[in-house]
Design goal:
2 strands, two-stranded antiparallel sheet, 172 residues, mainly alpha, 3% strand
């Protein structure tokens, strides 16, 4: 599924409300609250990086795109389902939010920081993917993160990132 508008994305994010998804520790957490809390943590760390904030907001959408794929029992399978879900989320937002958001969500899903640059230097996306993973963990219910806020506050940020991605797509 490819999301084509911010309105479709907002509808999907609203659909997260009350949806319980595995939290990686054999427990389930509210996907809506977790997404908002993760994005708020990233916003505190990097207030000017809107694409990173949006990646934090959308990285958990995968289980909603294919809910049956996430219904598992073992921890190993849950990890695989989490990764597959995040990859689905990355694919779904690629056209709307751009390549950087796509790469960040994919890198975070893979659990690795991603490849270093060709010259052996650190890839700038590595630190961003690490920040996303840390925010995701800190946003767990027992984490002492900021309050989740409300989804409507993110509409303008989503529209800005989508508009930037649209401009880049037309130039290419």
């Amino acid at each position: 599924m490819e999301l084509r508008s911010v309105e479709e994305l907002m509808d999907l994010l609203y659909a997260c409300r009350g949806a319980a998804v595995p939290d990686g520790r054999a427990r389930r957490t509210d996907a809506h609250t977790h997404a908002l809390r993760t994005a708020a943590l990233v916003r505190r760390s990097r207030p000017a990086d809107k694409e990173l904030q949006v990646a934090a907001l959308v990285q958990g959408l995968g289980p909603l795109l294919a809910p049956a794929a996430g219904a598992t029992g073992s921890e190993h399978t849950t990890d695989a389902a989490d990764e597959a879900g995040a990859l689905r989320a990355a694919d779904a937002v690629r056209g709307l939010l751009g390549e950087r958001v796509f790469r960040l969500v994919r890198q975070c899903a893979a659990g690795g920081a991603g490849p270093s640059g060709e010259d052996g230097t650190e890839n700038p996306g590595d630190a961003d993917a690490l920040l996303l993973r840390q925010a995701r963990e800190e946003a767990r219910p027992e984490g002492a993160g900021p309050g989740p806020g409300v989804l409507e506050d993110w509409r303008t940020v989503l529209e800005l990132v989508a508009a930037g991605a649209c401009r880049l797509n037309t130039v290419e």
